[in-house]
Amino acid sequence: MIRSAKILLALLVGLPTAAAQANWLPSPAEMAALPPYCAARFNEGSDAFRTWRSNMGGDFIHVHHYCAGLNFLNRARGSFTSGRNGGLGAAVREFDYVLTHASPGFFLRAEILMNRGVALSLMKRDGEAVSNLLEAIRLDARQPRAYMTLADLYDKQKNRGKALETVSEGLRQNPGTKSLQRRYTELGGRLPYPEAVAAVPAEAETAPPAAASPANAQPAASGPADPTPATPATPAPEPIAQPKIGSPTNPYCRFCPD
Length: 258
Known about the structure:
Blueprint: H1 2-13, H2 17-21, H3 28-33, H4 36-41, H5 47-56, H6 63-77, H7 84-101, H8 109-122, H9 126-139, H10 144-156, H11 160-173, H12 178-186, H13 199-204, H14 207-221, H15 230-233, H16 237-241
Helix pairs in contact: 6-7, 6-8, 7-8, 8-9, 8-10, 9-10, 10-11, 11-12
């Protein structure tokens, strides 16, 4: 317990002054609301710490700043006091620290940019927020909250069409997301919901069976060289007739069941 407290204090010293002044130290309930790697970061020597350090690599050393930013953001979202912007500003500074010090390929970069955009939107710095959210989506399209926040900003600017377009793309990338479906309806979107992007590659999977037929026919090509061609010749007509396209009773129906 004493060792954990010392580690926590040492890490807090590494946080920017504004973070220390704002008392970042999370309560047990606040820590539970943060990603699991946050608790691991403050428990050096634990199995969880070693696992997350192995997964994140050298950038794990900076992750407590992101955890601090998330905690400031969580606090600010639940507060409407005059000091709310101070907490949001502290969150942005913590996010900036990680974006500056972590490697460009850090796998949390898109998520950090998204949360930075959320914080800026709450501070009414809409232009910067839009820029961060678009960059976050460019890096990782599977972020429903980024689309939601971006659509809200467009709607706030009276650009309802752009807001609907944003939510529609969010649903294509994140099908089945309830919050996006609800916002899609609120913005006037018509059912059915936009088709998921993931459905496109699935159709391409129908091509391999067609390509497999010639491969199956190759052994038949060696058949005629056999002294008794009558025996190997029997399997050859099967790929030529192409019964696999449909059913045995209706070979011209590609999608009919057997």
